[in-house]
Amino acid sequence: MAVVAASAAVPCTSSLVAAVQTPPRCSTSRVSLFKSMIAVRGGNTTTILAAVVTETQTAKKVKESRKNDEGLSTNVFKPKEPYIGRCLLNTKIVGDDAPGETWHMVFTTEGKVPYREGQSIGVVPPGTDANGKPHKLRLYSIASSAPGDFGDYKTVSLCVKRLVYTNDKGEVVKGVCSNFLCDLKPGEEVAITGPVGKEMLMPTDPNATIIMLATGTGIAPFRGFLWRMFFEKHDDYKYNGLAWLFLGVPTSSSLLYREEFEKMQGDYPDNFRLDFAVSREQANAKGEKMYIQTRMAEYAEELWQLLQKDNTFVYMCGLKGMEKGIDDIMTSLAERDGYVWADYKKQLKKGEQWNVEVY
Ligand SMILES: Cc1cc2nc3c(=O)[nH]c(=O)nc-3n(C[C@H](O)[C@H](O)[C@H](O)COP(=O)(O)OP(=O)(O)OC[C@H]3O[C@@H](n4cnc5c(N)ncnc54)[C@H](O)[C@@H]3O)c2cc1C
Ligand SMILES: NC(=O)c1ccc[n+]([C@@H]2O[C@H](COP(=O)([O-])OP(=O)(O)OC[C@H]3O[C@@H](n4cnc5c(N)ncnc54)[C@H](OP(=O)(O)O)[C@@H]3O)[C@@H](O)[C@H]2O)c1
Fold it and tell me: Residues of the signal sequence (predicted)?
């Protein structure tokens, strides 16, 4: 067993404070661990010091495909009989001036929803739809590592954007599940299904180069990856490769988990590179909007070189639109070396080196 102190900061909100003052139904030990997480509060951020305790995991033989790992759980809970968790913490993690609200939330699982970094869970919102039928589940990428934010394998975290839009009739419409989740208070129940998903599972090779491409809440799986790589100690996994995160958001006030990632970079400068693309505040030399692919283009040559290695793995998560932008860069790089990107990508996908979950 090993222990490591992980430090993270999120914008301070009343819900975070409320979560501390009104602990949900949970064991005494969890309450004290929970309280111990809330350490320093200054300015408009609250620093969370999480004592992450990891357990010795049985050393597994590396299989050909990480997707066939027999220890991987899927669909343990189905919509008809979901796991009922409770909200432990729910906090807005973007500034008040950010376009839209994104929340980080932690739910209890009692260890009954065993998940891996990169998987998703379903949430069944309460109530019925316009046809009087129970609402269908919505999928959310898990934003925590397998041990969870408290390190006890008994919680799961999400990163959720509140969907609000104006329809053709000029009416403001609120997305059912995202609003339910963003409004959840500590102690309230949430119906969870899953876990599901194999596309975004991490490579097992601790020396892998892992390139993570995220827009907005697409950051969720990568927070899990990065906690495993840099905030935790595992007897069977000591990351010593290169992790490179590109994160695209609209404004600097919407840079998700920035303090956590900057801490990792400070602690592991040789193993972690971090690049932001802030679309509404930054532009490239041509004056074009700084999208994630625009930022990547600055490192096109280096990225292309990394892609030639057998142990480089690319993961993409977030807005569907980013996929085409990234393909466009790769197409020109591949062409230059005499490859057709579509074919090249097919090979990478076969080797599980190119992994995409966009929506
Ligand atoms: C694998 C996967 C992982 C996901 N992970 C996350 C995650 O980590 N975080 C996250 O926040 N979301 C994530 N999502 C999206 C999530 O599942 C929901 O779709 C999202 O929260 C909206 O659900 P809702 O119930 O609030 O909206 P709903 O009530 O279902 O409304 C959505 C519908 O509203 C309509 N609509 C939406 N925007 C507009 C618009 N601008 N104009 C007109 N109509 C519109 C569309 O018909 C859309 O289908 C993920 C999706 C998938 C498939
Ligand atoms: N596993 C999954 O499939 C998964 C997981 C999590 C989230 N998601 C989805 O990911 C999306 C994230 O949305 P969000 O609201 O959280 O993000 P957001 O905060 O709005 O940030 C998205 C960023 O991407 C930029 N962008 C817009 N069009 C782009 C394009 N064509 N190419 C590259 N960048 C582009 C936006 O720029 P501008 O706004 O300035 O144009 C903005 O900077 C949601 O649709 C969510 O459902 C999917």
Answer: none
| Residue-range domain boundaries for the chain | 2-56, 83-196, 209-358
Ligand 2 center–CA 131 separation, angstroms: 30
Is 359 noted as a catalytic residue in this protein?
Answer: yes
Atom of ligand 2 nearest to the CA of 358: 3
CATH among 1.20.1050.10, 2.30.110.10, 3.40.50.80, 3.40.50.11890 for 209-358: 3.40.50.80
- CB of 217 within 6 A of ligand 2: the answer is yes
> First vs last Cα of the chain: how many Å apart?
38
* CA–CA separation, 230 and 261 (whole Å): 9
* CATH architecture of structural domain 83-196: Beta Barrel (2.40)
Query: Model's pTM, two decimal places?
Result: 0.87
Tell me: the pLDDT tens digits for 272-330?
999 999 999 999 999 999 999 999 999 999 999 999 999 999 999 999 999 999 999 99
Residue nearest to atom 40 of ligand 1 (CA): 165
- For residue range 190-206, list pLDDT tens digits in order: 999 999 999 999 999 99
Residue from 15, 120, 141, 145 carrying the catalytic annotation: 141
Contacts of 179 (CB under 8 A, 6+ apart): 162, 163, 164
Is 302 catalytic? The answer is no
Has 141 been annotated as catalytic? yes
Contact 297, 329 (CB under 8 A): yes
Cα 249 from Cα 206, distance rounded (Å) = 29
